[in-house]
Model the fold of this input.
Amino acid sequence: MKAVDPNTLQRIRHDIQSMHAYAVQESAGMVKLDAMENPHRLSLPLQTALGMRLGALALNRYPGERVNVLRRALAVYARMPAGFDIMLGNGSDELISLLALACDMPGASILAPVPGFVMYAMSAQLQGLAFHGVPLTDDFQLDAPAMLAAIAEHKPAITYLAYPNNPTANLWNDAALEAIILAVGAQGGLVVLDEAYQPFSNRSYIDRLAQHSHVLLLRTLSKFGLAGVRLGYLMGPAALMAEIDKVRPPYNISVLNCECALFALEHQGVFAAQAAELRAQRALLLEALAGLPGVRAYPSDANMILLRVPDAQKTFDGLKAHQVLVKNVSKMHPLLDNCLRMTVGTDEENQKLLSALKDCL
Done:
């Protein structure tokens, strides 16, 4: 790597220099179970149809009306309430960053339970906002008294509640969830319910969304089956969304992203069947993991399972040696000591995981 003049580096914020970039593991030749991706590819006929459709796009033009067609299609698909609006992002990551930008006022902060999705804290740090993480209970539930105390103390501009949570894969207790939402609203903050894993969950907040004027619902098509397309969407009261939309870069959704998403929604039955298959595989995998000595698999409402093992690093390395790639989350937070996170894959992939896991343990 070519050396950089120290004087040039001084132009980069010192806190940025001390950060670590988001890491993506090398996965060539591996059974890839580390990133909560849908393992199913499009059938050949759908690949052909999509290829022809993408090839006919006017790539020489900026994205136009088709983006609004997609917004309307997603609103119908998600059953967005009347009086609400929808904003698109280049993945939900961009929307998380834009929310931090929109709320970046002196003294503003972001609050979320931890362990949770790393982008909540990272977006706060990149935008110069304080981040307050409130530890979950030992069984990965919301610590409602601690959350309410933190809300009263810090009065966060944004409180994130992933539903289900990442990496713990669980939903929250309804009473605790509602108490936190009401407390945030009482002090004028926003609640962002992140439903990235909604296709695999038996609950959604969409039917209660219209009850609040300060709650936004964040989703992504990544877990729907389009991780490579990079498309997220945020729903909230129209007047509020109109203000947040002012920080969105122009043309942030490419014509390729847009058309892929529209194509997928036109064939949503295919993706719904894939999600149903993965939910069935999750049940089988949890049952098999429960029979392994020395491990604890936690309940899941997502397409991932959190597993506690005697030695996370040793097990991770052993799985990798067996060409199975999972995520070692044991250093993310003390509550995750000796924990691994694994994606629910196809039956073949899950069998390879279980076989490798038995050998490693």
Observations:
- The domain at 6-44+269-360 is CATH 3.90.1150.10 (Aspartate Aminotransferase, domain 1).
- The chain has two domains: 6-44+269-360, 60-267.
